[in-house]
Write a structure and sequence with these properties.
This protein is an alpha/beta fold. It has 3 domains: 14-77, Arc Repressor Mutant, subunit A (Orthogonal Bundle); 107-337, 3-Layer(aba) Sandwich (Aspartate Aminotransferase, domain 2), CATH 3.40.640.10; 349-442, Aspartate Aminotransferase, domain 1 (Alpha-Beta Complex). It has 13 helices and 13 strands. The protein has helices at 14-28, 40-47, 51-63, 107-121, 135-149, 164-175, 189-197, 239-251, 306-316, 325-336, 339-364, 393-397, 428-442, and strands at residues 67-70, 74-77, 158-161, 180-185, 201-208, 211-212, 222-225, 255-259, 283-288, 300-303, 371-374, 381-386, 418-422. The strands form 3 sheets. Strands 3-10-9-8-7-4-5-6 form an 8-stranded mixed β-sheet.
């Protein structure tokens, strides 16, 4: 029988204490996958707490995917994939003074933390921040990267910014406009647009089934990639190709910008280790909370190699931090208290259920024999191949709300017959209407 010392305190009800102890035992392997947990009544009697307390703890674990329930049998531990441990090095204090409908955003927790920040920081919120961002948030991000991505990151090498667009522009100024930048082709068109607007030469880097092809990078010295989850194909760059790209960067005395956008929402496997862990001196790691929390939370960050951070302070240190201190301190507490991890776990379960429903609708529609679903583990979207002779422009002209894969190339391709289906905010009626239009469009083709 499990033996725990439950602690109740301010903001820590008994069920939360029990939940955290059980979660830790699952994550460390003390409770192994498939192991049956005690019944709610038996555990309540053993710990001398109410059945409601145990039930609330079990429901929390269930909602985050740590355990599963089998009707009339009980609760069982789910498999937990652990990353290699990573430590966060200590560093001295900085000399500076201290989209669409949002599903599942934890408003009550966020608002409570905001009230705490106002009470605890008071007039300090009106003071300027270090240009890198609040140290509290940088330390919280470093801890998060250690536990979630297996990265060892010095908080002093983290730079906070209001959105990735701002950080891209900082990188252009930091690395220089005289360098050629390579971006994935196909890829997210906005990245190409930002680099072009920044006045740099931009090369479309062709891809194969393993990712960007190193022998097609030409004169590029900077490579912008998303190796853990490519948009729109969902491709994950395998270890051998990653080593080849890192070797390219070393030979070219170049840089790799690792955009880890949306990596939290892989469902069938833990995200592959970040490339930054293999060469922290050549890889610039970049991520954002806009997708995982809410589009209006314009907080992004990048981890710069130490030499680049030194150069940033010398060359661009006059820039002020672009994210308000109130939001930074709130997010820092949200991360440190484990709320972000709980939120991600809940949303994974929510989106997994939504994806299953969308896939089921597609597979049961009248034209299912003409549709092939690709890249099911590609985060919040997947590819849908349509068996037709029609050009891709016909999908757009028919009012089908899913963009064609060919439109994501630097030089758009017309006849790939593949659509990009983003299902995070996809309504049933929108999907039903799209399938009806597809059926009508392809009836004679």
């Amino acid at each position: 029988m499990l033996t725990y010392q439950l602690k109740k305190g301010p903001g820590m009800p008994l069920y939360e204490s029990l939940y955290r102890l059980l979660r830790e035992d699952i994550r460390t392997g003390k409770l192994s996958a498939g192991e049956k947990l005690p019944s709610k009544r038996a555990l309540a009697e053993h710990l001398e707490v109410s059945v409601i307390t145990v039930e609330a703890a079990y429901e929390e674990l269930l909602s985050e995917g740590y355990i599963r329930s089998k009707e009339k049998v009980g609760y069982f531990v789910e498999e937990y994939r652990r990353l290699p441990p990573a430590s966060v090095p200590s560093s001295p204090e900085s000399a500076a003074p201290p989209a669409g409908k949002v599903e599942g955003f934890p408003f009550s927790v966020w608002s409570r933390l905001q009230r705490e920040v106002v009470l605890d920081y008071g007039e300090t919120l009106l003071l300027p921040l270090p240009n890198r961002g609040a140290r509290e948030l940088r330390c919280a991000i470093a801890e998060h990267l250690a536990s979630f991505r297996g990265m060892t990151v010095d908080p002093e090498n983290i730079l906070i910014g209001a959105g990735t667009d701002f950080l891209y522009n900082l990188l252009i100024q930091l690395l220089g406009r005289d360098l050629c930048y390579a971006v994935e082709d196909p890829g997210y068109g906005k990245i190409r647009s930002i680099y072009a607007a920044g006045g740099v030469s931009c090369l479309a880097a062709p891809m194969d089934e393993a990712g960007v092809k190193p022998d097609c990078l030409g004169e590029a010295r900077v490579l912008h990639i998303s190796p853990s989850h490519h948009y729109p194909t969902g491709l994950v760059t395998p270890p051998e190709r990653r080593r080849e790209l890192l070797g390219w960067a070393q030979r070219r005395d170049g840089w790799i910008i690792e955009d880890d956008y949306d990596s939290e929402f892989r469902f069938h496997a833990h995200p592959m280790s970040a490339m930054q862990t293999s060469d922290p001196q050549r890889v610039i790691y970049l991520n954002s909370f806009s997708k995982s929390l809410a589009p209006s939370i314009r907080i992004s960050y990048m981890v710069l190699p130490g030499a680049l951070m030194d150069k940033f302070q010398r060359k661009l240190g006059f820039y002020s931090c672009t994210v308000p201190s109130f939001e930074q301190y709130t997010l820092a507490r949200f991360l440190s208290a484990g709320h972000f991890e709980k939120h991600i776990n809940r949303m994974r379960k929510f989106y997994r259920s939504r994806r299953k429903k969308v896939v089921a609708k597609i597979k049961s529609c009248p034209m299912a024999d003409k549709l092939t679903i690709l890249e099911l583990d590609a985060g919040l979207h997947f590819l849908l191949r349509v068996d037709t002779n029609l050009p891709d422009s016909a999908f757009r002209e028919a009012g089908i709300p899913f963009p064609a894969l060919g439109s994501f190339y630097a030089s758009p391709k017309e006849n790939l017959h593949t659509l990009v289906v983003s299902y995070a905010g996809l309504k049933d009626e929108t999907l039903d209407a799209a399938l009806e239009k597809l059926e009508k469009l392809t009836a004679d083709n």
